[in-house]
Design goal:
The protein is mainly alpha-helical. 75% of the residues lie in helices and 0% in strands. The chain is built from 10 helices and no strands.
């Protein structure tokens, strides 16, 4: 019996190997090599690919430091802390909301970049260096409108460079960090304003509990429903989202 099963197994393997040799499947070959470029266009294509990979690697930093994302996510974080809701809404919701609001605010800038720089470059109307220079104009305009003069002067002085004659002459290496600290200052100011009404509710509740002799009861347990009720009655998400959208100059 064992010999019979062994014979059948050998026969099956032979049939399978025969069918594999009978049917051939085209397998694509992949070759990676370095060759000498024959035309300047080939060199330009390689440089474009390297530039694209560099931009993709820096995409998270660009999103955080050159868009309204920083102000939005910091304000939403302060709002959650002021309400005392711990992890509600969760971080995924806060980051997602900040991300889509960022796309909404930055849309006019992205459209200008596409119309003035990216689309002409894709249609081979302008060169890569010219497209890069044209793409900086809408970004520089947005950053300058939302950057304080004092922050800009700080980094111009710290860079030990010649004082720019106009705002358009400011380098992006100076403008980007100035924009970031301006955004952080604005976000902290908004966060302070958001804290005031909720802090008043906490103080009132703590005073009432102290007067009633209920010192062992945490005031946050009593004040949280009142803060949620106040936030819902004034339509807080609508007010905060609308105020943040209006706070940016595009």
């Amino acid at each position: 019996m064992k010999i019979k099963w062994g014979f059948l197994l050998c026969l099956f393997l032979l049939c399978a190997s025969a069918s594999a040799h009978a049917v051939t499947f085209p397998i694509p070959s992949l070759q990676l090599n370095v060759e000498t470029a024959k035309t300047p266009e080939e060199v330009a294509v390689v440089l474009e690919i390297i530039a694209l990979l560099t931009i993709l690697a820096l995409a998270p930093a660009i999103l955080i430091l050159m868009t309204p994302f920083t102000r939005l996510v910091v304000v939403f974080h302060f709002l959650r802390q002021a309400m005392g809701t711990q992890s509600s809404p969760p971080n995924q919701v806060i980051v997602g909301l900040a991300l889509f609001m960022t796309f909404f605010i930055i849309k006019p800038v992205a459209q200008d970049i596409y119309q003035q720089s990216l689309n002409p470059y894709l249609e081979r109307q302008i060169a890569f260096d010219m497209a890069f220079d044209l793409a900086q104009a809408p970004i520089r305009k947005f950053l300058l409108r939302n950057t304080r003069e004092s922050d800009l002067a700080l980094f111009v002085k710290g860079a030990d460079m010649k004082k720019p004659e106009t705002r358009d002459d400011v380098s992006l290496l100076v403008l980007i960090p100035a924009y970031v600290i301006s955004e952080l200052k604005t976000a902290f100011i908004i966060g302070f304003v958001l804290y005031i009404p909720f802090l008043v509710i906490d103080m009132v509740v703590a005073s009432v509990l102290l007067a009633m002799g209920m010192m062992m009861l945490p005031p946050i347990m009593i004040s949280l429903p009142f803060k949620l009720m106040l936030f819902v009655l004034v339509d807080g998400w609508h007010l905060i989202a609308g105020s943040l959208l209006k706070s940016f100059g595009v």
